[in-house]
Amino acid sequence: MRYYILFVLVFFVACKPEGSDTKQSSADIPNFRWLIGDWQRINDEEGKITYEKWLPTHAGIYLGHGYTLAQNDTVFQERLALKPVGKSDRANFKNWALEVTGVNEEPTVFRLQDYTDSSFTVVNLKNEFPTHIKYYIQQDTLKAIVRNAEWSIDFAFVKN
Question: Where is the DUF6265 domain positioned along the sequence (predicted)?
């Protein structure tokens, strides 16, 4: 729990709002609000419990924290940031990316390829696994598919 609190505090302090020169309304910016919340995986391996938490920031970035517990020990952890790339046209979804940290030495950046009001797909063909990540909401279930050409893992989460 203390890691979660530290994560939230660090990212709220680190993320500052864009300058006042930004004239776009929030209605023009891609809406990923359906991600927000505390999620627990319902199709996990036996003996493991996986969680994801997504928060919006005042800067229009969506921050995620995913982790897996086995016998109350954290066996996997990653930080996610869904954000615009640079200060270019924030309304163009192709200028957005999902940055994943905590898995590899350097952050892994996946560029947004497809976007709807209830789904998105990000791609990084240079990454060994996954090359594609798709998130979507289906009724009350948050689903994610991580894959490359040979292998795929499906995740299903419900609000915790």
Answer: 34-147
